[in-house]
Amino acid sequence: MQTLTACLKKLITAAVIMTAAVSLPCSATDSLSLTNVETAWLAEHPVIRFAIDPDNAPVEWINRKEQERGMSFDMLRLLEQRLGIQFKRIESESWAESMQMIQNREVDILPAFRRAMEWQRQLLFSRPWFKLPGVILSEQKYQTLEELEGKKVAVVHGHIWDDLVSQISDKLIMIRASDSHQCLDMAVRGGADAMVGDIASVTWILNRSGVTHLRIRPVEGQSLDLTVAVRDDWPMFQKILNKALDSISQDELDAIEENWIQLIEPAFWKDPYFQIITLFI
Predict the structure, then answer these.
(1) What is the mean pLDDT of residues 248-277?
(2) In 102, 137, 191, 260, which residue has its Cα 20 to 30 A from 47's Cα atom?
(3) How do residues 115-145 score in pLDDT, each as one tens digit?
(4) pTM of the entire structure?
(5) Average pLDDT score over the chain
(6) Among positive and negative, which fits the CA dihedral 156, 159, 163, 169?
């Protein structure tokens, strides 16, 4: 168990962007060193609207009981405590719809945005608050994206891995699916040679599926940063968010990690890489 515990610590350290901030009183906005202008801005905007990617467990999703679940909701609760405001979720059916909503300013933020270059001029972004390593899911032992050249690779259409894989190599045969479950189904049934995604999402759907013959391998040098995307006319809130994120303590980050990521004894694959199961309570 000592070995497993040590592995867990290493994985979590690699997966999360840590802050060196000291824990602050939860409701003490004055401890954030907000300016008078920033404090007044918050008073004028007590409710912040947001939308999520409904197919992004364990980062964010709505379960069958219509409960809000995932890491981004834990982070939003911390931000509510810091800033003394309320985040209100506006329903959306897909990530594409959520993206359209923030462009139309029907929502104010997207709490777990996978930052991509093409959005730099259309949205504002907080500093990253979580890092998720990329992985290859396949029956074969592919170690790099270069080894997938000429192979059929499943990615979720419009997601960050679609962009990243497309930029890295034009020699892959890209198959764009509507969601992660469809990508997994392609990999299982042979419709794709591999699936590329992030460690959290891939392990979550894999463990729920009961599939036992696919292997997870890290994509060297490839990861995605989760940030809070902010509507482009709210630079003030971008600055406020960064101050609030800087105030979140190591213990609070650890609590989010422990709530959603747990190391278990390997059951159906013995690969020492990323022996993680993501909780879906």
Answers:
(1) 61
(2) 260
(3) 666 677 899 999 999 888 889 999 998 888 8
(4) 0.73
(5) 81
(6) negative
Question: Rounded CA gap, 116 and 68, in Å?
Answer: 25
Is residue 79 a contact partner of residue 87, using CB atoms and an 8 Å limit? yes
Which residues lie closer than 8 Å to 47 by C-beta, 6 or more apart?
85, 86, 87, 88
- Which residues on neighbouring strands pair with residue 215, listed in sequence order? 138
What are the C-alpha distances in Å from 183 to residues 21, 50, 208, 247, 261?
39, 27, 14, 38, 22
Please classify residue 249 by burial: count the beta carbons closer than 10 Å to its beta carbon, then call 0-12 exposed, 13-18 middle and 19+ buried. middle
Only one residue has tokens 């029956």, namely 139
Q: How many Å separate Cα 279 from the centre of its chain? A: 14
Residues 165 and 174: beta-carbon distance below 8 Å: yes
φ/ψ region of 113 (left if φ > 0, alpha if ψ in -120 to 50, else beta) reads beta
What gap in Å lies between CA 96 and CA 176, rounded to an integer? 14
Per residue in 45-102, pLDDT (tens digit) is 999 999 998 878 888 998 888 889 999 999 999 999 999 999 999 999 988 899 999 9
